Structure to design on (826 residues):
């Protein structure tokens, strides 16, 4: 069984956006063992769309199309897919209800053209949209299948994981089971080097690496008759990887770094506050991603100016004058200052040069210090990053959380 | 004249890498006014490559292929392109010399298989590679053109800018110019409804809408002999759109909402501080995206707990008990509290239920209040969002910044 990926949208043809959907779908199909020989991108043009579906049917068993399911007249993918497969579009009551509820919850009036999204090819398997308005579907012709998915990545990904993977697995002999290990503090090529032969020699389970800003996910995927059997294949490989990477593995599955840090804090009953300069609120925002954080997170302060550092965090004026705002000395005083004023067990701070301006040969853009105050002790770390303002700040948050995680593991094990 | 982009590589089909080359080429071709109706991705497979070139010749005047020019046996793009166009591959002395020099400069020994890269289709216009080893080329058949480019983005981009653009400009009559207007506070389908006929009736310039979380971009693109003439076509359409959408247009080009808000604050010399509950630092972090913000942004406080709201922001305990933390009353006290304690002209606050827990029928997940203290006056806004925790928080930040922007425009015009 093989598939062709068809991403629809003039904004892709014009190069306005990156085709992350094609990559995502390709990766997930590869995980499932479904071959992809072609990916195509076309605009919202009825004739070319029609031909693309016809061509896809010649070249593949399944054509998976994303995009062009919106409410506007430009959005034609569903209409053309219905035409290619000879299906009529009929109103799906549940889809309409979900769209209406979506608008209701936003306190916005549903426009008449949104109704168009609730019309779906007769007999299609409908994939409801829990993140937006456009439902997706699978249209079966007996020999071939068209799968239609919305274009916005978060809607597409949610629908793919929730509905498309279970749908596609019915055509598979056996089941596929995956385990994801999450790694921080070592880059993708280093992980590849460390895992070495393990990566190349594996066919079942397979091991795949996925890198994103500041972290790497390792997906171990096994195919077997039952999920239990697949998991039995995964275990020994997981053990080997854990042995090699040790504490660099911070979590598994959907766990985020902040989840792990928050769990450790809650487990050990430690309260925390953060004082941020260069990260400007991102570190607090990341911790607050964790829904149950309020029992341990007491306060965050964005002290961007020296004035705020002195007034709010009791950073010594002499420290700022002698060492500068971006220094180990300022970082630890900020960490202590927030912990003392907020009355928490732990204080964490960041101060650095996120750019584009403000750098010097001595303190270049990308230089960041973080401070940690815990149980009366002060620690600091010096970091160096490359990239734009946003990237430097996001990498800082990841590195500081990881540094703190390693501290918590070491002292509490 | 139109082109088809063919990116070659199994790593793309497997989703191991993002297809940034296709986006880059698409964008540069759009800038030149060369239409692209199809992008295709295929693996390093001789039969499928051959068919892809044949299909490209049916659908486009130029097929631009990247990837598969490397020294290994897997790299077949050039060989197949020569076969499709009936050209022989012959050794190009300059190309060989450049490859030899490249290895010399790296103090590495050139392997025998690198010689393969110096063989190019007879009669082709050769694009030498100044960043790597594989030269590119343009093969003309009389009616159609194949352009071959290396896969590594930095080599491809250098070659494209240095050689391909000058090569293609000989075939051009005219240029393409674009203007982007950025909209906040109305959704994509509402924008479409408001623009109505304008969207459909336009052919030159064309108008296209692109939505992302909380905002919509409108791209107006005109084709003309010169850039000045193209801009003359754009102006009246831009004026009409501005007339229809008014203040919903917050900026243009690459401007972000925080850029516009920061510019307004700096222009009017107003200082600001923010107090955040549900957004947990994201609002401060967004403002601090703006590199010059330090002259107006004084302080951010993440007051997630009631304790911090009282202690740090002087929110009245009675207010919290009577109206709750998520209320108009708490929001305005937070806004005033941060402005007073930070000593700024303006204070902004957020307090809401980001979920997944904590909602009730009276105060559901997604309910958010924002407060604004400015020149002694207090304002508030009630917002309702749907989505996950992260989305509710990001939408809150967009909406609050937009609300504040509208206030600043109204009071300062």
């Amino acid at each position: 069984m093989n598939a062709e990926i068809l991403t629809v949208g003039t904004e892709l043809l014009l190069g306005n956006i990156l085709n992350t959907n094609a990559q995502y779908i390709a990766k997930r199909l590869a995980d499932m063992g479904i071959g992809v020989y072609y990916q195509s991108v076309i605009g919202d043009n009825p004739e070319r769309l029609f031909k693309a579906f016809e061509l896809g049917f010649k070249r593949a068993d399944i054509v998976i199309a994303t995009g062009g399911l919106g409410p506007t007249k430009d959005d034609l993918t569903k209409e053309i897919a219905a035409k290619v497969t000879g299906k009529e579009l009929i109103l799906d009551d549940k889809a309409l209800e979900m769209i209406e509820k979506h608008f209701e919850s936003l306190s916005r009036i549903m426009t008449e053209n949104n109704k168009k999204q609730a019309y779906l090819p007769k007999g299609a398997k409908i994939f409801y949209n829990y993140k937006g308005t456009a439902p997706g579907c699978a249209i079966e012709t007996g020999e071939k299948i068209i799968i239609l998915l919305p274009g916005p990545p978060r809607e597409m990904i949610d629908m793919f994981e929730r509905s498309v993977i279970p749908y596609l697995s019915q055509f598979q002999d056996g089941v596929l089971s995956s385990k994801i290990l999450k790694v921080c503090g070592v880059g993708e090529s280093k992980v590849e080097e460390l895992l070495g032969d393990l990566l190349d020699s594996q066919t079942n389970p397979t091991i795949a690496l996925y890198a994103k800003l500041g972290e790497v996910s390792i997906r171990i995927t096994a195919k077997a008759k039952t999920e239990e059997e697949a998991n039995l294949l995964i275990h020994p490989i997981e053990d080997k990887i854990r042995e090699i990477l040790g504490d660099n593995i911070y979590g598994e599955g959907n766990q985020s770094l902040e989840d792990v840090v928050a769990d450790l804090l809650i487990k050990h009953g430690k309260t925390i506050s953060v004082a941020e300069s260069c990260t400007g609120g991102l570190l607090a925002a990341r911790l607050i991603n964790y829904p149950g954080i309020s029992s341990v997170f007491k306060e965050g302060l964005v002290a961007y100016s020296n004035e705020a550092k002195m007034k709010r965090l009791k950073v010594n004026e002499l420290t700022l004058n002698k060492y500068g705002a971006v220094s180990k000395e300022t970082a630890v005083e900020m960490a202590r200052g927030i912990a003392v004023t907020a009355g928490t067990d732990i204080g964490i701070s960041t101060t650095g040069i996120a750019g584009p301006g403000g750098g010097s040969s001595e303190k270049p853009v990308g230089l960041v210090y973080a401070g940690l105050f815990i149980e009366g002790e002060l620690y600091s770390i010096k970091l160096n990053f490359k990239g734009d303002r946003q990237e430097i700040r996001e990498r800082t948050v990841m590195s500081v959380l990881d540094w703190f995680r390693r501290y918590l593991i070491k002292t509490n094990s």
